[in-house]
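REVIEWER CHECKLIST
Item 1: Sequence provided? yes
Item 2: Single chain? yes
Item 3: Sequence as submitted:
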Amino acid sequence: MTQDALAAGIQAAAHRQGLRSGTDRMRVRKWERGVEPSEESQGYITEALGLPADNVRSDDWPNWLPLTADGVVPLGPHSSVPALREALRTAMERRTFMTISGAALSALAADWAGGPATALAQARAGKPISDELVTFLETTTQHLAGLVTEERQHTATLLDAHLSTVTELLEHGRYAPALELRLHTLAASLSQTVAWHRFDLGRHTHASQYWIAGLHNAHAAGDHDMGAGLLSDLAYQAAWRRDHTTAASILNYALTRAQNPAARCLLQLRLARTLAARGKRSEQRPALRALAAAEKHLNDAGADRPAWCAWVSEADLAVDSGQALLDLGDTGRAHRLITEGERLLPSARDKTRGVFLAYRAASYLDLKEPEPAAAVATQSLLLARRTGAPRCMQLVDDLLPRFQPYQHAQGVPELLQLAAA
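Item 4: Structure as written out by the authors:
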């Protein structure tokens, strides 16, 4: 939109309210150069851009404005802060009216896979940032992310504040290259953690924006394994929403740069899951090859793992392999693997245990065994409610129609009553 076109749109917005606006091209130019529009003018700007009126936060100009047409900030030498700003802006919206397309996400993954292999230089100006402050943010972030599952559900506001602080430091601070690298790494890690919070609550556009912001900052830090992990999370979300074409595309791009065996294990597991879920005979062999690759990478993985995939274990390999085999029709073997994986999972990962239990319930239903299915589905639902994970509750809700033919089986009426409560 040109300056003249925006000015005309603002004048028209004022006219529709029986008022006049003196906005012209020169005033728009002043706004672009840092002069803050009045609250009234910001309202007219919103209408001229076709945005919801409740987007306006006059005390946060211009951060409430969308930065892109499709929600995806392109990778570039100075894209890390704009991507963070876009995520923070999206999270402040009272309603989300835009969904990021699979094509836009696949294009972003392709740009990442084919981009420069070195860290991206950022401009450094403003007030000096101390090593002590960054160390404090790193330490407290690690502590918050390491809390037990039921406590982590209460940390969202603290993590949001940490990410906002890191964004301000990156944008307005002055720091040496080593400190800049740490700030980008911290921004990537925080973005990933916040994204999972949003994803668990079903806020998919918000989660996507935070994962995208994390990708920009991992790219700026030159951390390709972290970048691959963030793409893997976007792929997991796409698969969760049944967009397996996008998920497979993103994962294949992520695998081009991931190096750590634990990271490659997780990527291959997720690729196997999404290939199997597509239900095509032609995908059976690629899915089995991905499972075999995941097993090999896990065997090769040592103690030196990126923090974001340090948790990948034999339990994850067993359950995700079992779920893939379930989709491929190998029900008996799938049931054994899912049961074994759930048994191996440590108690500290109760949210994941809830997901695994839901998978096990599905495998029991495939075997037409409603009693054990009801028992583990009940456990899954109770764990999901205790840990505050609506996403996990949805897994059980999706199974409920399959229990309807077994309403007289032991445990089924109680499960249905619990789910309705």
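Item 5: Key structural point noted by reviewer: Residues 177-200 form the longest helix (24 residues).
Item 6: Recommendation: ____
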